[in-house]
Design brief:
The protein has about 425 residues and is α/β, with parallel strands linked by helices. Helices cover about 40% and strands about 20% of the residues. It has 14 helices and 16 strands. Strands 10-9-11-8-7-12-13 form a seven-stranded parallel β-sheet, sandwiched between helices. A four-stranded parallel β-sheet has the order 5-4-3-6, with helices on both faces. Helix 2 crosses helix 7, helix 3 runs antiparallel to helix 7 and helix 5 packs parallel to helix 6.
Length: about 425
């Protein structure tokens, strides 16, 4: 199959969507939500065929799985996006020059947004809804693990689009083969921006091979630093929530740093993790503090490889630091720029942490699990940007647009 044919159709669809009335966009999103609930049985049946090919022990299994409850949440999210203000046509800047030229910087669609993602069929819904609302066509490249689920979702969406007289090419799902990903990475002139959603290996592959501009998202090596002035009760709750709420997501906690003066409190900080059988890779001081308080079967000596790892599993490293500055140095070395937090009652330490840590989201006395567009009140998100150009942190509707300058004149000419 010549994928350039699909890319050309997506580009044409992008031009059509840019002119679609906001009311019609919202009607389509509500219709897709209705159809999702109506086809629950069919969507779950296709998802079950994908699940049958993956071990339930695989950390990606939970991401891949659809349930009636999750489909209801997806439908609710679609309706929520429909209810959000349009991100298009916003006047970002307006100035009239001394010569009378009237300049406006206005938000506009990208055109075509490509997304490469792993075993997460809910992403197909998220990307479509955000791209449609932001006036762009989307080209999706899902993983082979979720191919049947993604095809059922996209086929359903395309049917709804056709019913509304809108080109189905507004959403295109590429073949699951690796060659399709390579073609998407080279689709310069057709795809305006590419967003990878997945682990560090996927993001690195996209970054190193794409000729299309890339917004990096997803890879999260997240730390929690329990400061010398940390509250143990708050700390235990924060660490547990950040680590065990959902281990397969990018905002899950990967590493606990603890000030050496507070090692005696480490067993209390980690006690709730025992219920979830979290395996701890602890350095020698931390392992000695945990010995006899944490199951030996779940306690291992940390190696260099354990730091800087995004586990996406019931695993976490524990590092002892002698000072606040050592904690900052460790995060700077091993963090991915996603989400970091400090647990402290020292206001000065908290403010310094907020200023010094270079990450998209920096927390004081709250878990990294809050890094999410919906939790931030932004509605649905397409991912968490860990870079600094265009967007940083949760990418919601506003971040799904670019802008152009509109200039009105009245015959002015530029002096020689």
């Amino acid at each position: 199959m010549d994928l350039n044919v699909l890319f050309k159709k997506a580009k044409a669809a992008g031009r059509e969507l840019a002119q679609l009335p906001a009311e019609r966009v919202n009607d389509i999103l509500h219709a897709v939500a209705d159809e999702t609930l109506a086809r629950t049985g069919q969507l779950l049946a296709e998802n079950a065929r994908d699940l049958a090919r993956m071990s339930p022990e695989n950390p990606l299994y939970d991401r891949l799985k659809l349930t009636p409850g999750r489909l209801e949440t997806i439908a609710a999210d679609l309706r929520h996006v429909a209810g959000l203000p349009s991100p298009l046509g916003r006047i970002l800047k307006h100035v009239v020059l001394p010569n009378g030229l009237d300049l406006k910087r206005v938000s506009v669609p990208f055109g075509v947004i490509g997304v490469i993602y792993e075993a997460r069929p809910n992403v197909s819904f998220d990307v479509f809804s955000l791209c449609l609302k932001a006036g762009s066509a989307c080209v999706l490249k899902g993983g082979s693990d979720a191919d049947r689920s993604n095809r059922a979702v996209v086929d359903m969406i395309r049917e709804v689009l056709a019913r509304f007289g809108v080109t189905p090419d507004a959403v295109t799902l590429l073949p699951s083969e690796r060659g399709a990903a390579a073609a998407l990475l080279q689709a310069r002139g057709y795809v305006d921006v590419l967003i990878p959603r997945g682990g560090s290996a996927l993001i690195r592959y996209v970054r190193e091979n794409a000729r299309v501009p890339v917004i990096e998202t997803g890879a999260g090596v997240c730390h929690a630093y329990f400061d010398r002035a940390g509250d143990v009760g708050k700390g235990a709750a924060i660490v547990t929530n950040a680590k065990t709420r959902r281990v397969s997501v990018c905002n899950a906690l990967d590493s606990l740093l603890i000030h050496a003066d507070r090692l005696a409190d480490l067993p209390r900080l980690c006690a709730p993790l025992r219920d979830s059988h979290v395996r701890l890779y602890a350095d020698e001081p931390a392992r000695a503090a945990l010995k006899g308080h944490y199951p030996d079967s779940e306690l291992e000596a940390a190696t260099e490889a354990n730091f800087g790892t995004e586990y996406m599993d019931y695993k976490m490293s524990v590092k002892t630091v002698a000072s606040f500055d050592e904690a900052l140095d460790h995060i700077a070395r091993y963090g991915s720029g996603h989400s970091e937090c400090i647990i402290t009652e020292d206001r000065e330490a908290a403010e310094r942490f907020l200023q010094a840590v270079d990450a998209a989201c920096v927390y004081v006395n709250a878990p990294t699990s809050f890094t999410d567009g919906a939790q931030f009140g932004l509605g649905a998100e397409i991912g968490i940007s860990t870079q600094k150009l265009h967007a940083r942190g949760p990418m919601a509707l506003e971040e799904m647009t670019t802008y152009k300058w509109l200039i009105h004149g009245n015959g002015q000419t530029r002096p020689r």
